[in-house]
């Protein structure tokens, strides 16, 4: 449980480094993350390395008692490398190379670039692998940022063909899996296969699905190459990569298997502006972010690996359609909340606002004139709160099943523009959280017996094995429409949905419809929306809408939402199921969120007005570790669990 | 008057074919449409044909007593053909080839592809031209689908230059026709002329107009090449092509001259979602489709040729922004309505929902698990209704004049974003239909004397000959703004609008304005919108708006709407004119539509609630052939005309 | 103070030219602008010139007593030139050549095209430079129209590298100025630098800023080459170029230094449709245009040079999303208003509506059938009004500072989608005008001592020298947020905003936020919106919003709006400051605008209903030169100042 900061010594005169390091230490930070965009300074010309400045920077930090997380600089290859190898560039979906001049200008499938990626990693790992300060390594930076996972370059095409050859061996197997007899799309050879873009109308969804999987695999492979080199030279270092919020173009569960800690970059305000939330919601949470944004990602990435936050928004940013100031207290809140969700560390981005180039309007802990900004004092306060706590361990009894593969299937064939897997999963997450529940978001392959309730908002492919383990687990199940509807190629499952889940949910989905955004019908405490199944079933529906359409089926403790529930409808069903299982729920005021570890319970107020803790919550002895019964905007309360 | 179905035996194991054929027959179907996407199976490698499977499929259908409509497979050329001839691809308006991976990946102007199109047609026609089951042939599939009529390929450029050379002979004639002295656009040679795209601002509208005409001609030629080959080998077969709804990129009147029956593909739900209707309208008719969608297209295509429906939506589809289930009864309603409008046959698309590839979420008569879906039972019911009726012949006394050439002129120079020819024409059609009228939609070249009232919602070029025939016909005329405003090159007509129509409408349009969407002024029973002319005229306007602007001029029985009327305003003017001509009109409840042939009258309820037939409608003896005075949602009533 | 007209004799038979000229003269016009699109007629083949027609056209106009403004035809190079030199084309930001078929198909950086531009200019200047009728010359037409200033061609890339080499000499100086150590963007040579497009995410803002400056310089150079040739052969002629409204891609202050008169093309209706105004506002002023559109541009371009209007909208146009007819009287109003703002001349575009090609739906003074259209009579009326007046000289005591360089900085890094420099500047202008004030819009380099109040709505870079001159001037200052926030490279200014303005406004902007469109908080008579600074300051804010956020600081007579004021909030602050300075203000009814010269005062009613002049306005002796106390829609009143 430690605090750090993102630092770019190369942006500042060397004279500042020592005082910077000392101020970091004084602030309560224990590490600095450095180096990840500095290739042009480390290797100004091909093969000529300049480590002097980095030696000195690392040494200065070390001398101040800070540890260092060192990043490989592969997100920003220098111009001379690009000019020497134009086959290293990614191509966009429109068929154009994506050139030099910003960052991430490379293709994961370029063997040329892979070679240089390994080379610079090797050089760095050799030099700093045994340095006592360098205890952590980060590969590259934000794989996929600026839509860079899926490349349509000639190199990607060749690599995709190889990937397919490896997967299917026989072209007829591919033809069969993809259903290529449809529209005469049959191939005679893997070398005939193009990337799925610039077709007349949409390409075969199975074709696109395999391309998405291939693209994800290329990212993982790229990371693994670097991680293996680092491991060789720094066998005891913590290896990480910093992933993003709201990003699904590669499989983070798989990446989680190849890091020690998965870190993520948390920018609650910018992402709210980008979201599909209503204008009212965006206005209410303008300077706080959505109450579930950070929690959702903490719990999602905790399901991938040990996790931390390596870029915490410290003030206004520069890249959203509008960039408000965080409400006073929010940097503190976000920081503490991360640890409440089990983060191993948290670090604001960045130490000092840099007055030039693309990110000059992105706040730091310090202003460009070296004075403290909002984040500075709030990180100090957060350190004070954290000092009273030990590390948390999660003990959630409710799980959401999620897989990237399912996300891609629904992305490729949403069957209705309003169907967004992320919106649905995070809406179900928010429904559970609004009851005060702790929630794990996990891959279907995890051990399920620890859970009392398992939610499946949107899991299109779902194997017999998973269905069997669900049954064995004894958990109560709430499954949404589309669950178990697809086979591994994204095709309709034989026997129809819910496929293997019929073991628990004895019904057959005969067909489905999607509707425009907005409520589709009233049911229970809310409405259904987006998607509705028609079902053949011996049982009567437990809930129907005003037109008599089936919305919910109950089979013992298992539930099937034949029509996707909105938050209110789902919440009441979940509340009842929790009550049956003896899981305590709460009626939280809007904007209040709870989180419990084994030792403590936290409350966070995201709303713009003060709220009271509902009766039944709070320390039995009335003693708060921090805060109290009334939480101001951006307020935190914490107390020991009995 | 027969029912069929679209069938893809190649998607299913051969063991199923016989039972499929028998079930079709039992359902009351008399033909199956097959083969149109199967090139890769018919010719797996260059010149190696595999007819065994098709022989067997045709034979199996024949054995069950079904006729076969066989499609040429040119909408889906195989990958090996594309790889051998990259000059066969169309290019998009952005200047990029449109590649393999879906369908329609060819350019109508590619001589290479034309050769292969003739070759595969020849091979098929030779083999099946004399087969007793194969009584109908379809060329290709949905010319123009996915915006494929207008290609910007090098082949198209060469062909366009030849087309222009043939049309104008002399480059100075072209310069004069297009007005190329404007902006120094003069050419010295046909070989200097580019396709009208990627210019700095919009190209010369006459240039674009000729390109649109050329593109249409290429489609017709492509069809004619196939049709001639088929005719040679199957002289008695019915030749068709399946056109689409809401599609205007080539001249369907011209195509109609080269088919025996023009078929169309009717998907009422998806097209409502795509339309510019209000959200309220889309919500009300979500599961029924717009009440005039099918009728409009039936009457439009009946104006091109004998017609039928070859793809009838049988349930939810997969390609619209949202895809609802049809209200129970709608498949029956759509099917019967087609025959009420004079269709020669109707066939749902498709027999069985296919669980793989692009259209896996598109319903069939059967579910993927072979159980009957909605369409199955409703087609059976429709067959029952139809058994009581004979073929209808149209006897409309009201006509709408429409031409594709005029559509293109207005598309190229709308003069206001809200001016959409289709919206205007179909709105006038709907106004007439809401009075219970039967309407023909016809090309200006048809014999007009059979009509009492002729509507000209939007006919920009209108020759002296047409004006003369209008006068001779004795029909009352209602013309909308822009009528007769252009010459054959799309230029302003000498003497100004309404040009030749001045013979009937003695006025001069001095200038015109367009306004933002929404009402422009109140007049009569409604409002004007979109477009308004200023007029010099000896007569006073018959209607003005609240600002005193002229909206309507009356000259005897002829009307000129100087400002485009909305539905309410037009309806009342039309009602009065019908009364004067002794044409009976009705006050129909919203969503109710009528249709009469010589022998019967039908009522169709598109609304979501039950409606009563208005007094004055219904059988004089009280005996309905089907239905009754109260029509439930999706209900049909029919009775014999006295 | 003279009236002219845009005329294209080449569009009409020679027989019409003489009567055209005579009608122009009779209408009160004194000159015709001709020739600017006629290259293909002047030089039908390479090197073969045909001057006969132009000789005759000029002669005919001359004979009728008209002067001629002759345009160089370089906006429309002929096809043969394009075919001979494909390196003359501009490329769009997507990386594609912008081809022949409309106009402006050339790249300002093409040396080849520059050579031909000089050649055709030379040929024309030699032939007509001494012609007694040709008293005025226009270079090219509407530089930048259709987004043609910024070209991404190979020629532009080479020229940009040269421009950078000249500016920075040393590549390290460029690296330092741009901050290229960020994201490893360092260059070793000017030849490594690409144009700032098709990068993975946004390029370095300093890179883009220099590209925008370079692109502007290329336009000025292109103009200067032509102007110098013309000057040589026609030393006494007036040289002009016609600029556009709402256009900022090159520096009009700089162009103003190289013309005798800067002319502009005024289309009030089309530009309102294109603007970001509310739908209500667009509806209210549908047929009049925004009340400040024309005034803003008159005053902006008067700040660049002597100015005139060379294209005045005379009726509906063809190019906006909808194209209404001007309210009767508006052509007269626009024409008189131009002179009230100091225009040297005004000319409607065009003489006669041309019935072919791209602009066939654009009105002229005459209809295509030669009859007078709206503009004809109204220009005649305007001539009558103008005959009573002498030339005006401006005497504004309020100035707005504006620079194109600042515009580009904010365009490149708006930091919030709602931040549009033009909207802010023109909103501040409108606030002042709604008080009845005359306003100059000037570059910060002008002499400021003549002004009592100086407004700085958005001037990001602001030098010490300007701040010093502001102080010396004694003017009261109202500065908006972002003033003085950037250095000359677009980077954050050392010491933070307001940088040099701290001399007058002793505060420090510590950080800023942007919010979604709409009010951000209530303050004074209105609200703040779009942008808000947080400020360190010894003084208390003079205004705060309901959340206690500082909105306005007052320092003596100087004001700093830490949060951008809306029109109401700014107006009241400005009104108070004017009162303190003894500048009279008025409470104008909505849509009424005033303008005073040294000799007269004018009132213009843009509203759709009649308005009364407020008490205190109008002639002291009750005698109006035109109009009276009640102004009908489109009405004008004018009276002598005492
Ligand atoms: Zn792995
Ligand atoms: Zn024909
Ligand atoms: Zn200059």
UniProtKB/TrEMBL annotation, chains A, B, C:
Q: Which UniProt keywords apply?
A: Glycosidase, Hydrolase, Metal-binding, Zinc
List, from the UniProt record, the residues annotated as the active site of this protein. 142, 311
* UniProt keyword annotation of Metal-binding present: yes
Record domain Beta-galactosidase trimerisation: where: 396-519
Q: An example Gene Ontology cellular component term from the record?
A: beta-galactosidase complex
- Which positions are annotated as binding substrate? 103, 141, 319
Which residues belong to any copy of the Beta-galactosidase C-terminal domain? 593-640
From which domain of life does this come? Bacteria
Report the EC number(s), separated by commas if there are several. Answer: 3.2.1.23
Q: Which family does it belong to?
A: Belongs to the glycosyl hydrolase 42 family.
Q: What is this protein called?
A: Beta-galactosidase
Organism, scientific name: Parvularcula maris
């Amino acid at each position: 449980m430690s605090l750090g900061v993102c630092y770019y010594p190369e942006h500042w005169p060397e004279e500042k480094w020592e005082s910077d390091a000392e101020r970091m230490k004084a602030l309560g930070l224990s590490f600095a993350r450095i180096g990840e965009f500095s290739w042009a300074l480390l290797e100004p010309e091909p093969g000529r390395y300049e480590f002097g400045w980095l030696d000195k920077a690392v040494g200065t930090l070390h001398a101040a008692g800070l540890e260092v997380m060192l990043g490989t600089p592969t997100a920003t290859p220098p111009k001379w490398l690009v000019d020497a190898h134009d086959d290293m560039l990614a191509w966009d979906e429109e068929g154009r190379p994506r050139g030099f001049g910003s960052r991430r200008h490379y293709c994961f499938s370029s063997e040329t670039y892979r070679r240089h990626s390994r080379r610079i990693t090797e050089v760095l790992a050799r030099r700093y692998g045994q340095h006592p300060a360098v205890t952590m390594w980060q590969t590259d930076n934000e794989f996929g940022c600026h839509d860079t996972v899926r490349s349509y370059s000639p190199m990607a095409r060749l690599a995709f063909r190889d990937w397919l050859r490896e997967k299917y061996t026989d072209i007829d197997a591919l033809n069969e899996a993809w259903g290529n007899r449809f529209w005469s799309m049959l191939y005679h050879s893997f070398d005939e296969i193009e990337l799925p873009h610039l077709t007349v109308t949409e390409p075969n969804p199975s074709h696109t699905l395999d391309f998405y999987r291939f693209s994800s695999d290329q990212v993982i492979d790229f990371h693994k190459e670097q991680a293996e080199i680092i491991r060789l030279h720094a066998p005891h270092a913590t290896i990480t990569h910093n992933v993003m919020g709201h990003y699904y173009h590669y499989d983070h569960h798989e990446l989680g298997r190849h890091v020690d800690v998965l870190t993520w970059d948390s920018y609650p305000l910018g992402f709210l502006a980008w979201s599909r939330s209503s204008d009212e919601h965006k206005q209410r949470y303008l300077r706080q972010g959505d109450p579930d944004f950070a929690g959702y990602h903490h719990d999602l990435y905790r399901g991938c690996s040990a996790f931390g936050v390596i870029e915490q928004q410290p003030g206004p940013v520069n890249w959203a359609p509008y960039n408000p100031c965080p409400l006073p207290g929010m940097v503190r809140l976000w920081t503490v909340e991360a640890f409440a969700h089990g983060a191993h560390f948290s670090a604001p981005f960045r130490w000092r606002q840099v007055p030039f180039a693309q990110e000059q309007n992105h706040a730091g802990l310090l202003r460009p004139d070296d004075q403290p900004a909002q984040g500075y004092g709030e990180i100090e306060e957060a350190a004070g709160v954290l000092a009273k706590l030990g590390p948390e361990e999660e003990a959630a009894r409710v799980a959401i099943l999620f897989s990237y593969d399912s996300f891609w299937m629904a992305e490729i064939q949403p069957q209705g523009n309003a169907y967004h897997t992320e919106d649905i999963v995070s809406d179900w997450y928010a429904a559970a959280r609004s009851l005060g529940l702790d929630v794990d978001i996990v891959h279907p392959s995890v051990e399920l017996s620890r859970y009392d309730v398992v939610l499946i908002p949107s899991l299109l492919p779902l194997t017999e094995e998973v269905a069997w383990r669900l049954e064995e687990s004894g958990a109560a199940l709430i499954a949404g429409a589309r669950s178990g509807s697809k086979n591994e190629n994204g095709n309709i499952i034989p026997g129809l949905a819910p496929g293997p889940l019929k073991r628990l949910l004895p019904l057959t989905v005969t067909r489905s419809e999607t509707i425009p955004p907005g409520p589709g019908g009233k049911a229970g405490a809310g409405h259904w929306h987006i998607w509705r199944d028609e079902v053949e079933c011996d049982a009567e529906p437990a809930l129907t809408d005003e037109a008599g359409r089936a919305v919910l089926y109950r089979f013992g403790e298992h539930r099937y939402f034949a029509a996707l529930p909105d938050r209110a409808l789902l919440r009441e069903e979940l509340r009842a199921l929790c009550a049956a299982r003896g899981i305590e729920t709460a009626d939280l005021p809007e904007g209040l969120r709870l989180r419990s570890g084994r030792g403590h319970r936290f409350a966070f107020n995201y709303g713009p007005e003060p709220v009271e803790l509902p009766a039944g919550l709070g320390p039995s002895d009335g003693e708060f570790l921090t805060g109290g019964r009334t939480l101001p905007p951006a307020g935190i309360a914490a107390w020991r669990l009995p």
